C-alpha cells in the first residue's frame, strides 16, 4: 500500500535490533516529531497537514529531515489499518489493551520496517528508544519483542497472511490498502462499471499527491511559476506542477497572486465559467467559498469579463480566508447559503462546492479515512440538498449552477442532484464531461455524463464531482 515498499525476501527472520543509525542527522528529533503529530491527530483531532509544518519549523527541521518526518507521519497515519492487522499478530496483548502512545510508537515502527528503506535494525532500535522515552523501560521490552516479529517478514509476506487472496474482496482490499471497509465499498460503488479499477484507486489514495499551483488569471503568469521551478500541468490553462520545493517560497504564492490548488478544483470552477449563457452575465456567486480556492479563480475570471463575484461562507474564519484569495472587485460575506439574504434569481452563475466527507482528497489528509464513519454521509446529505436547492433558487432562468463535491460517494453526488431535481421541472442537466473537455485539452475519463467525476488514479487529481445545471 504505501509508496515505497520494502521488499526484502532474503532477510533473516531473526534480525536483531541494533543501535540507531548514526548519520549525523537529528534522527531522534525526526521520529519524535512524527510521533508528536500522530499523537495530536489521535488525541485532539489535529490535522496532520496543518500541524506538521508548524512542528517542523519550531524544531528547525528542513530538507531531508523534514521530508523524512513528513513521510513517517503521513505513511504511519495512512497505513494504520494494515499495520494494526500485522501488529495484532505480533503482540501477545490485544491491541486495544496497549496504551495509546505505545501503540502509536508500534505503528511508526511497523511503517518504517515494512514501507521504507530504513534498515530494519535501525527502525526497531529507534522505535524501542522512543517507546522507552514515552512509556518506560518495561514497555520498551514489549515494543522490542513485537517489532522484531514484525521485522521477521517483508510486506508481501505479511500481506499474504493478513489480506489473503481467498478473503472476501472488500476485507482484502481494506487491509491491503489500509482503508476502512465502508470507504472501500463506497469507492467501488462510485466506480460503477469500472470497479475493476478499485485497486489502482486505493493505491493512488496512498501515494503522495503532486503539488499543483494556479497562476490566478490577470494576477500572475505561468512563466513566473516556471521560472520558480514549476512545470506544465496537463489540464488547466492556469496550472503548473511543482516537482519539489516549498510553494511558500515562491513570490507569487506568498503575495496571493498564485496558490496551491488541485487541478480538478481549477477545472470545475473553469467549467462553470465555460458554459454559454444568454443575456446578462455580470453577477456570480460562490455559496460555500471558504477557504477560497475556487473563489480565487472565479473572481479573477469575473474581473476579466467585467462581472463580479459574491463569495459567501457560513464560518467567519473561513470567509476571512476567502478575502485573501479574491481580488478587490469581489464581495465576501458571512452568510448561510441555505437561507440567502439575496433575492431569488439574483445571479447568472452560482458555484456550490458543498461540505462533504472529503473521500476524494484522502491523498492529502492522511488521517481523514479513520476520522468519520458512514454516518457522516447521511448527516451531510441534508445540508448538501438544501445548499443545492438554494443555489438553484439563486440563479436566474438561463443561468447555470455548478454542484461540486470533493467526494465521489454516490450519496453525496448523483443521488443528491437527482433527489433535488426530482421535485423541480425548471432545471436542465448539462453534459459536464463535454464542457470540461471544451475547457481543457486531453481531458477524458470523466464518465458518460451528464455528471463528471475526476479520479486520482486516472487524472492525478482529487476525486472531484461536478454537475452543471441550467435553470430553465
Ligand atoms: C468544501 S468547502 C469549500 C471549499 C472552497 N470552495 C474552496 O475551493 O476552497 C465547504 C465550505 O462550506 C462552508 N459551509 C458549510 N455550511 C454552509 C452553509 N450553510 N452556508 C455557507 N457555507 C457553508 C464551510 O464552512 C466550508 O468552508
Q: Can you summarize this structure?
A:
This is RsmB/NOP family class I SAM-dependent RNA methyltransferase. This protein has helices at residues 27-44, 48-58, 63-78, 80-90, 100-115, 120-135, 137-150, 155-162, 169-176, 181-191, 198-205, 222-227, 251-254, 263-274, 293-304, 316-325, 368-371, 375-394, 414-422, 432-439, 456-459; strands at residues 211-215, 231-232, 239-242, 258-260, 283-286, 308-313, 331-334, 347-353, 395-405, 427-430, 452-453, 465-471. It has 472 residues and is α/β, with parallel strands linked by helices.
Question: Can you describe this structure?
Answer:
S-adenosyl-L-methionine binds at residues 288-294, 313, 353. The chain is α/β, with parallel strands linked by helices. It has helices spanning 27-44, 48-58, 63-78, 80-90, 100-115, 120-135, 137-150, 155-162, 169-176, 181-191, 198-205, 222-227, 251-254, 263-274, 293-304, 316-325, 368-371, 375-394, 414-422, 432-439, 456-459, and strands at 211-215, 231-232, 239-242, 258-260, 283-286, 308-313, 331-334, 347-353, 395-405, 427-430, 452-453, 465-471. Helix 1 runs antiparallel to helix 2, helix 14 packs across helix 20 (432-439) and helix 18 crosses helix 19. The strands form 2 sheets. Strands 5, 6, 7, 8, 9, 10, 11 and 12 form an 8-stranded mixed beta sheet that branches. The model is unreliable at 1-25 (pLDDT under 50). S-adenosylmethionine is lined by residues 265, 287-294, 312-315, 318, 336-338, 353, 355, 406.
Amino acid at each position: 500500500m504505501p509508496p515505497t515498499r520494502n521488499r526484502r525476501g532474503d532477510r533473516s527472520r531473526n534480525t536483531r535490533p541494533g543501535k540507531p543509525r548514526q548519520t549525523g542527522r537529528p534522527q531522534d528529533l525526526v521520529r519524535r516529531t512524527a510521533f508528536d503529530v500522530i499523537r495530536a491527530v489521535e488525541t485532539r483531532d489535529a490535522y496532520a497537514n496543518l500541524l506538521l509544518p508548524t512542528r517542523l519549523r519550531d524544531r528547525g527541521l528542513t530538507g531531508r529531515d523534514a521530508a523524512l518526518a513528513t513521510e513517517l507521519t503521513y505513511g504511519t497515519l495512512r497505513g494504520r489499518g494494515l499495520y494494526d492487522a500485522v501488529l495484532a499478530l505480533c503482540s501477545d496483548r490485544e491491541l486495544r489493551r496497549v496504551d495509546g502512545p505505545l501503540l502509536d510508537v508500534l505503528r511508526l515502527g511497523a511503517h518504517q520496517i515494512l514501507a521504507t528503506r530504513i534498515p530494519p535494525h535501525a527502525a526497531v532500535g529507534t522505535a524501542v528508544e522512543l517507546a522507552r522515552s514515552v512509556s518506560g523501560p518495561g514497555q520498551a521490552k514489549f515494543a522490542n519483542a513485537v517489532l522484531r516479529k514484525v521485522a521477521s517478514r517483508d510486506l508481501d509476506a505479511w500481506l499474504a497472511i493478513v489480506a489473503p487472496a481467498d478473503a472476501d474482496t472488500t476485507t482484502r482490499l481494506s487491509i491491503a490498502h489500509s482503508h476502512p471497509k465502508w470507504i472501500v465499498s463506497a469507492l467501488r460503488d462510485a466506480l460503477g462499471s469500472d470497479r475493476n479499477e478499485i485497486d489502482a484507486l486505493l493505491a493512488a489514495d496512498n501515494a503522495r499527491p503532486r503539488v499543483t499551483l494556479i497562476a490566478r488569471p490577470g494576477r500572475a503568469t505561468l512563466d513566473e511559476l516556471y521560472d520558480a521551478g514549476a512545470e506544465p500541468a496537463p489540464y488547466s490553462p492556469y496550472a503548473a506542477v511543482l516537482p519539489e520545493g516549498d510553494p511558500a517560497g515562491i513570490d507569487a504564492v506568498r503575495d496571493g497572486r498564485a496558490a496551491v490548488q488541485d487541478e480538478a478544483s481549477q477545472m470545475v470552477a473553469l467549467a462553470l465559467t465555460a458554459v454559454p449563457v444568454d443575456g446578462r452575465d455580470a453577477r456570480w456567486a460562490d455559496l460555500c467559498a471558504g477557504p477560497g480556492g475556487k473563489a480565487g479563480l472565479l473572481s479573477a475570471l469575473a474581473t476579466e469579463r467585467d462581472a463580479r463575484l459574491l463569495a459567501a461562507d457560513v464560518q467567519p474564519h473561513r470567509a476571512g480566508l476567502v478575502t485573501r484569495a479574491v481580488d478587490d472587485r469581489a464581495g465576501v460575506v458571512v452568510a448561510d447559503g441555505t437561507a440567502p439574504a439575496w433575492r431569488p434569481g439574483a445571479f447568472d452563475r452560482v458555484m456550490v462546492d458543498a461540505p462533504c466527507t472529503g473521500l476524494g482528497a484522502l491523498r492529502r489528509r492522511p488521517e481523514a479515512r479513520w476520522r468519520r464513519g458512514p454516518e457522516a454521509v447521511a448527516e451531510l446529505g441534508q445540508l448538501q440538498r438544501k445548499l443545492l436547492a438554494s443555489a438553484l433558487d439563486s440563479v436566474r432562468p438561463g443561468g447555470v449552477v455548478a454542484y461540486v463535491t470533493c467526494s465521489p460517494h454516490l450519496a453525496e453526488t448523483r443521488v443528491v442532484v437527482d433527489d433535488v431535481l426530482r421535485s423541480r421541472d425548471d432545471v436542465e442537466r448539462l453534459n459536464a464531461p463535454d464542457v470540461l473537455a471544451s475547457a481543457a485539452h486531453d481531458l477524458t475519463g470523466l464518465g458518460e455524463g451528464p455528471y463528471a467525476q475526476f479520479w486520482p488514479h486516472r487524472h492525478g487529481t482529487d476525486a472531484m464531482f461536478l454537475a452543471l445545471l441550467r435553470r430553465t
